[in-house]
Amino acid sequence: MAMVLRWAFGAAAVAGSFHGVSAASTVTPSKATATNGVPFTQFFLVNDPNPEYGNARSYTATGLPPGLTIIQTGLSKGIVNGTPTKAGTFNATITGWQNVAPGGNSSPHKVVFTVVSTGSPPTVSVAPPPPTVVEGTVLTLTATTSSNGPFTYQWLKGDIEVAKATNSVLTFNPVAITDGGSYTVRVANDFGTTFSSAVVFSVTPAAPTISAPPPSLAIHAGEPFLLTVGVSGTGPFTYQWLSNSVVMPGATASAYSVPSAPKSFAASYSVKVTNAGGSTTSSAGVVLVADPLALSPAQIDGSGDFVIRFLGLTNRLYSVEASTNLATGWNPLGSPVSGHGSAASVLDPTAGSSAKFYRVKTAN
């Protein structure tokens, strides 16, 4: 409902007798009250107690409450109207002017506007989240508010304000282990402040993620091998290694090592990693165990060169060495050679100069 008040400034003037506006004019009343958010209209007149002067013919105003404006409705009348948008006290100035358009003599008048609020403190509720949330997922808390806005929000964890959490929605993306706890939201409007009931959730770790599964290897019998696994997530972790998907008793470290592998250890190796959130089994790495590394009987090829042969594995490097003394003086015959899963050979063009011993070693 609009509020309509009539202002009378001084005594009524004789129509048509206006010659100017003097400093003797007064404002009656000098105060007005409006309600925030409620349409407001107020008529006013300005005149002077001296019969020589009459009603002002135009009006201007400054300092009115936000949402209110002054409107000229005809000679000697004006209206302040609109809908206030902010509560508070506002010291406005309304000026009466001699001419039909603002000009000539003028007389400013101070008018105090009081814009009051009406309504009630907010009501607020927060839908409870799941009691347990998995780490790394997205969780959203939403405040549902009613009553007169606008509202301001502040989320709290326990009694501590959550930094930058000043909206109706609080999102954890992703949710972390440390995010678990009790949360409330404080909501305020012009009429008061309300706290929601607390909502509580805990965060359980996600199952481990395998970032680097055990590698595949090719070795000779008698060589050592080491299998490792890369894991991410929230620890602590436990490990169980498997050979061809069968649990290996005692193989419960983060790595699996064998100092000297027999051919029977050729298998597919995987590992099951467990934490409080569950278990994850890696993909398998295949370990190939070939015959022990050994030289085949040396031969002389059609060019008369002395040829030393051995069975090399793919992606392995080998160094063939020669010496005239089994104990010392071993020297490589050229650069290391690559294995290809078949017989590899190295030439010794100086073999006929003296008797020699030969051996082959892995270079990687």
Can you offer a commentary on this structure?
With 364 residues, this protein is mostly beta strands. It starts with a strand and ends with a strand. Strand 30 (317-323) and strand 31 (331-332) form a beta hairpin. It contains no helices and 34 strands. It is elongated and about 145 Å long. It has strands at 3-7, 31-35, 40-44, 58-62, 68-74, 77-82, 88-97, 106-116, 123-126, 132-134, 139-146, 152-157, 160-161, 169-172, 181-189, 192-195, 199-204, 209-212, 217-220, 225-228, 230-232, 238-243, 246-247, 255-258, 267-275, 278-281, 285-290, 299-300, 306-311, 317-323, 331-332, 337-338, 343-348, 357-362. Residues 1-19 have low confidence and may be disordered. 21% of the residues are buried. Strands 10, 12, 13, 15, 16 and 17 form a 6-stranded mixed β-sheet that branches.
